[in-house]
Amino acid sequence: MILLVPSLVSVVDDDQSVRESLPDLLKVCGYNAEAFASAEEFLASDLLRETKCLIVDVAMPGMNGPDLQRELSRRRHAIPIVYVTAHRDETVRPRMLEQGAVECLFKPFSDTALLDAVMRALRAG
Amino acid sequence: MGPTHDHLTEEIKRLRRCMNDLVGVVGLAAVWTGRAPSQIVGILLDSLLGMLLLDVAYARVEGPDSKTAIEMVRVAQSRQPPTRASDIGDALANAFGGDPLRWPPSARIRLAGSDVSVATVRLGLRGDAGVVVAGTQRADFPDPIDTLLLRVAASQAAIGLQEARLLGEQRRLAHELDQRVAQRTTALAAANTELKREVTVRRRAEAALRASEHDARLIVDSIPAGVALLTPTGEVDDVNRQVLQYFGRPLDELKNWVASDIVHPEDVPNVVRRLTHSINSGEPYECEHRLRRHDGRYRWFQARGLPLRNADGGIVRWYILLTDIDERKRAQEALQRGEAFLAEAQRLSSTGSFSWRVSTDDITWSDELHRIFELDPPLTPARIRTRVHPEDVHAFDTTVDRARHTGDDFECRCRLLMPNHSIKHLHVVAHATRDREGQLEYIAAVQDVTESRVSEEALRDAQQQLARAARVTSLGVLTASIAHEINQPLSGIVTNAGTCLRMLAADPPDVDGARETARRTIRDGNRASEVVTRLRALFGRSGSTTEPVDLNDAAQEVIMLSSSELQRNRVVVHTELAAELPPVFGDRVQLQEVILNLCLNALDAMRSVDDRPRQLVVRTERDEGTGVRLTVQDAGVGLDPHAADALFQPFYTTKTGGMGIGLSVSRSIIENHRGRIWAASNDGPGASFSFSVPCAPQAVSRLGGPRIVHEREVTPRAAADAVHGGVSP
What we know:
The structure holds 2 protein chains of 2 kinds.
Chain A: E1 8-12, H1 16-28, E2 32-36, H2 39-43, E3 51-57, H3 65-74, E4 81-85, H4 92-98, E5 103-106, H5 111-124
Parallel strand pairs in A: 1-2, 1-3, 3-4, 4-5
Chain B: H1 2-32, H2 37-51, E1 56-62, E2 69-75, H3 85-96, E3 106-111, E4 114-123, E5 130-136, H4 144-222, E6 226-230, E7 236-239, H5 241-247, H6 251-255, H7 268-281, E8 285-292, E9 298-309, E10 315-324, H8 326-348, E11 351-357, E12 362-365, H9 367-373, H10 381-387, H11 393-406, E13 410-417, E14 423-434, E15 440-448, H12 450-505, H13 511-539, E16 547-549, H14 551-568, E17 571-577, E18 584-586, H15 588-605, E19 614-622, E20 627-633, H16 662-672, E21 676-681, E22 687-694, H17 697-701, H18 716-724
Parallel strand pairs in B: 17-19
Antiparallel strand pairs in B: 1-2, 1-5, 3-4, 4-5, 6-7, 6-10, 8-9, 9-10, 11-12, 11-15, 13-14, 14-15, 16-18, 19-20, 20-22, 21-22
Helix pairs in contact in B: 1-2, 1-4, 1-12, 1-13, 2-4, 4-12, 4-13, 12-13, 12-14, 14-15, 15-16
């Protein structure tokens, strides 16, 4: 019997209810999950190396989602990204996908839509 | 073991249902996007009925014109007979009173013959869009989960209703603007046509005049006219028969014309000057002057003289041709007078005149007066009287009577009631004179001042429209922000609910985990409704209210509300709010609208800035003297120094997307608060917009002491004075 180590999915969002709720959902579905309140906090963390998929809020104070994506690719450590945003701006999604995001979901999103995106991200990674 | 297990199964079922319902409620937004408010409420009622197992769901919402209310009801299938919305509405009004906004959150009442537990939630961002009442015979309704579902559903509906309201408002505004543009275009086109017509008429008149001059010359050249022959030195030598007949005097008398009244005394100097010039220079002579006919009347003549030269070129005689141009001249004068009169009339616009010979009641009216009274000639006092507004007839009679007997000047204002029921306002000024026989005659001017009254009203109307357009613009920007604020907690709800359901579905179910996620779901649900509550505090009051306002609080609320919009545009907000700022008196919502406008302007000014931080500073401080000053400082593109004055004019804008009304509306709000608003360039990049409003009188008088105004010490009079510019006794 081979014990599979669950993949680590990291959540970066300045909104507390997302940081509380998303990791629980991911854990129930068999993933490892960690939450970070800002892009800076995530970049400073040891878990950066282990993260197989990132769920990131597009707009955050300080470094925002796309900034984080650019910083990761500058460090040559690209991680598949699923963006989430509470701004229902239809122009955002195509822009994010064009820049290489796996998915961009508008809050509130359904759990199945999120899990589907995470699964695609992990396959991509 | 058994009861505990049953209890657990029951709880799992209950939680599962609750979570499913929550997910369902959150999903409603997708269904009602783009629909009218009444449809949104209809969908809301349907889903609440199913979710909460209600017997009845009733809604009363504001109609599209904000004046009528729409009532809707949904009842459970099993209930018979069908219920009318107005019956439920009447029953609720009987139980709770006529104003739905004052209905209690929950109560147990008698409805359609049974005892029903009802719960009421208010709809809309302002909480005034309507109410939803959920009713069921269940005695324990509403339990916390019912309340949560109702609140989350109402929060969801708030976004939908806000979007629908905004869409409607934008459509209406766009339609109105279209109409105004069309009206203005038509008016301009009409004015243009009128102008063209005038130009054509004028050209024709000029051409006619030129032609008649030409004709006159031909006639002068071809028909016998007066001819005088002068010596080379200018003395009258001889005249033809026509001249002798005209003057009725012998030639000798005519020779001495300079010293007699043959030439009109006023014209003599001119005639002498011109004639002397021609005789000295030999140039043709031309002059227009009056000559006295045999009956003593002066008529206008054109005199044209040519020298007759001998073979050496020396002048031997002057031939003077005298043409009677009296009629032409008088016509010309009449024309000039007419033109002057016309110009004057245009200037005075809508002023008619009349003269009234009292002894004979003989009245002469100007055309304008016929137009004002909309009566065909002839006008008589009796006919005029039929137009006077019934309420003013007595005053009219009194005035006429007094004028008839006293012969004093009089002035009066009176209203006319026209056949189409419109009202005209007239201003009459009459001056009494006596003619040569000593008879009393009034000369009077009648001005129609309706127009100026109407245009004052139109101006007020336009200002209100501007204010509304500005509100729609700022609401438009804020709708995204509001949706963001509400979507955050909704996102938590959906994720928690999904997690909760998965935990319950696991084998064995993770009941503790599910309870925890359910707890968080409820917290997020409450958070969503808190957002709506906070928004209601900001938008809630309609109409102007005067109260002590803490500008620090007001500014912080605005910043909080627009924070996501600012953050999305990468604007960093710093606040430098003065401690112990005295309150100002005014309308909190209006002042917040100004702060919001200034912040949105600052945001726009920084959109193109990428080489420096997009920093926005909101600062409050005591003004020199007695005011409080608020400054919004940006690091944007800065001000055009030449445009600083134009900034606060309506429709001035440098933004491609802007309407240029925010600042002008802001200025009128600040000026209504006896304050002032201005803009200045920063030392560094960007501009600062500031306003200053006087603080409450009590706060000023206590500069040294605590700067807090207690409401009971503030008289309504002082509050009104603080805003409207009066002086406290």
